[in-house]
């Protein structure tokens, strides 16, 4: 097989979800947690989105974590650093309540484990806008373990975000990959299929597809896990 490494997206790929429903549930839980510390719910949500935008625009000069907290503190002031342990506590505990906003597909874990049994490397190329602890929880919601992946991208260990091609370049460098021997599997046409521009193969998982720009998906190998497994193991 010419594919030696598979990169998987997480949200909407290995972990089925409606992105909007998940985001509403997540923000509701965060607002409940931080309300006693004087965080107005609407302002908090706007600030998280603003911090997320700062990560997406990150030019690689700092980690996404630093980009987020720099912007977040510009909005709420230095009190956010005093409250940092509360945010950590949230991701360790209350954040897990957002699992009810997600689906579950046993084929996710089956596919990853089948790859590893075949000697193919697996890494998790999820948009690195969450702390590691939140990413590790979402991996487990999908029926997998963080140890199933050589790398899982988080806001602590990355300095770019999707859809910036530099995000994929960073992974190539970190794992010493040959792009032509690497497959990117994801559900977002704009954020995941862009890896093709770096010489990677791509597969669009259509179960929870996001196609904001209404691109013609016939240009990409696509389908559900059954089609993905045929693509991986029968071609």
**Any idea what the shape is?**
globular
- What are the low-pLDDT stretches, counting only 5+ consecutive residues below 50? none
Characterize the largest beta sheet: strand count, sense, and whether it forms a barrel: 5 strands, parallel
CATH level-1 class of the largest domain: Alpha Beta
CATH-assigned fold name of the largest domain: Rossmann fold
Quick recap of the structure?
With 235 residues, the protein is α/β, with parallel strands linked by helices.
Explain what you see.
With 235 residues, the protein is an alpha/beta fold. It has two domains: 5-18 and 103-233, 3-Layer(aba) Sandwich (Rossmann fold); 20-99. It is built from ten helices and five strands; from the N terminus they run βααααααβααβαββα. It has helices spanning 19-34, 41-56, 64-76, 79-82, 84-92, 106-117, 132-141, 165-175, 189-192, 225-233; strands spanning 5-8, 121-124, 182-186, 201-205, 222-223. A five-stranded parallel sheet has the order 2-1-3-4-5. α2 (41-56) runs antiparallel to α3. The N and C termini lie close together (8 Å). The model has no long low-confidence stretch (mean pLDDT 97).
